[in-house]
Amino acid sequence: MPNVNKTSDLLTIEKYLPHNFLAEKIVLCSLLINSDTVEIILNNLTVKTFYFKNHQEIYKAIIRLYKKKIPIDLITLTSFLQDNGLLKQIGGMQVLTELVNQIPNLVYLEEYIKLLQDKSLRRSLIRLGYQIINSSYITNIPLENLLNDLELQLFNLINKTQSHDILNSADLFSKVFLTIKEKSLKPSLAGITSGFYDLDAITQGFQKSDLIIVAGRPSMGKTAFCLNIAINIIKTNSIPILFFSLEMSKEQLIYRVLSNQTQINNMRLRAGNIHKNEWSKLNSVIKSFSHLPFFIDDTPNLSISEIRSKIKKILFEEADIGLIIIDYLQLMQNYKFQTDNRVQELSQITRSLKIIAREFKVPIIALSQLSRNVENRLNKRPILSDLRESGSIEQDADLVLMLYRDSYYNSSNCIYDNAELIIAKHRNGPIGIVKLNYNTKYTQFSNFENK
After folding, report:
1. Which CA distances in Å does 134 have to 7, 8, 10, 44, 84?
2. CA distances from 387 to 195, 303, 326, 350, 393 (A)
3. Taking the CA atoms of the chain, what radius of gyration do you get in angstroms?
4. Is 175 left (phi over 0), alpha (psi -120 to 50) or beta?
5. What is the DSSP letter of 22?
6. Across 240-347, where does the E strand assignment appear?
7. Residue 73 is part of a domain; what is its CATH number?
8. In which band, very low, low, confident or very high, does the pLDDT at 271 lie, cut at 50, 70 and 90?
9. Which CATH number does the domain housing residue 252 bear?
10. Buried b (16+ CB within 10 A) or exposed e, 395-409
């Protein structure tokens, strides 16, 4: 095994990376003799998929001809390479003649494409392996940054191995029909129930791959609302819940959960001022929650790559994740896209969260602050444009919920427990306002109103 710290040795290793010379020639030949294969090949292979440099140059030339809408054959390709001084570089006319003399079996074209993809990914994996070794010697960069960067590269490789088949209309309609038939025989929510009955009736539960934004001004009850959703889900379904708390500590959240479940005041819990008849209830709640898969991470300034890494760690131990909650969006960092424009950075974060939701097929709830513009209006009920540093928050979200408590602004209103849950955006259903009463301990909503 050569010493991988030497550049010359790395170049030597490049010569022996996985490849398939014949498959590359057959695929290039297919492009030159059959125009029907052009789009199939170009949509599945990149220049780097080819191992040999002259094959890469030939493929580049074919791509440029295709973009210029010039017919692709031996004559047009030869002319293009000559005009751009590349014919000698690829090995001369002899190389092109050898290509068209191949007799490709187009029945197996898809297999040849998969073969080249496989070899390309193996080369990338080997290079990443040596990069890991070399990076380990770099001591002036924090280890955490190195690990996050390497993990992201490995994740990108894994993504390339996952096939995303294009289904025709017959397959799609059949799939949807079977789902509808199954639901009709056994009626149930399409997504995960939140425990808030009227909200579930409107949204049909939280759908896998959905990005849900829960927004509101401070003291509107965003964290309490989402904590109760988490508790309802985990108690009903016993599926893992992952709560990223960028603002509060683990202990603060646990005190909130205990206060909610025992109905003992948070301040009394912290002071240890527990009445004699309350100890048994407190012990019972702690015992029941000790067996539930409720994960809390209170790392501050969390990044997208760290969230992805921690999700994978949970999935390594658990079969599934029911819901991910992030409290809150504006405290997140994007180290890969740092810019003076916070709106653009936040847009990248929300886009990445949506991608993670789709990648792991799990609903993600992200809490968000609203701008101070709300305070300057006579009607302080929030609207979509109040999303702070909104960027693409509204665009990427499948569901936007806004919490509003009139009693917070109106001291003459004595009903402090009343609140409104405003469904400001719903990609798959109606919008409106759901009345909420805090005395129900967050068990249900009532009086849905269409806007």
Report:
1. 11, 14, 11, 31, 38
2. 26, 21, 16, 13, 8
3. 29
4. alpha
5. H
6. 241-245, 294-297, 323-327
7. 1.10.860.10
8. confident
9. 3.40.50.300
10. ebbbbbbbbbbeebe
Least trusted range by pLDDT, from 194-198, 359-363, 432-436, 445-449 = 445-449
Token readout for 415 is 């009903």
3-state class percentages of the chain: helix first, strand second, coil last, to nearest 5: 55, 15, 35
**Tokens standing for residue 68:** 């210029």
Amino acid at 88: K
**Strands, E assignment, 29-123:** none
The b-or-e profile of 171-187 (16+ CB within 10 A means b, else e) is: eeeeeeeeeeeeeeeee
Per-residue pLDDT at 411: 61
Which of 81, 111, 132 is at the close of a domain?
132
Distances in whole angstroms, Cα of residue 344 to Cα of each of 59, 336, 340, 341: 36, 12, 9, 6
Can you tell me the distance from the alpha carbon of 338 to that of 344, in angstroms, rounded to the nearest whole number?
9
Can you tell me the distance from the alpha carbon of 308 to that of 26, in angstroms, rounded to the nearest whole number?
A: 39
In a domain, 388, yes or no: yes
Where do we find the tokens 């991608």?
355
Identify the DSSP state of 333: B
**Confidence class for position 448, pLDDT limits 50, 70, 90:** very low
Cα 376 from Cα 412, distance rounded (Å): 19
Whether pLDDT at 342 is above 70? no
Task: Tell me the residue range of the domain where 224 lies.
Answer: 191-450
Does residue 172 lie in a domain region?
Answer: no
Residues contacting residue 412 through CB under 8 Å, at least 6 positions apart: none
370-429: pLDDT as tens digits: 878 777 777 778 878 777 655 567 778 888 888 888 777 776 554 445 678 888 888 877
Q: Domain boundary residue among 101, 132, 163?
A: 132
Q: How many alpha carbons fall within 13 Å on the CB side of residue 62? A: 28
pLDDT, one tens digit per residue, over 166-192 is 556 666 667 666 766 666 666 566 778
Among 27-36, 262-271, 411-420, the minimum mean pLDDT is found in 411-420
The answer on 409 and 268 residing in a single domain is: yes
Q: What pLDDT is attached to residue 3? A: 44
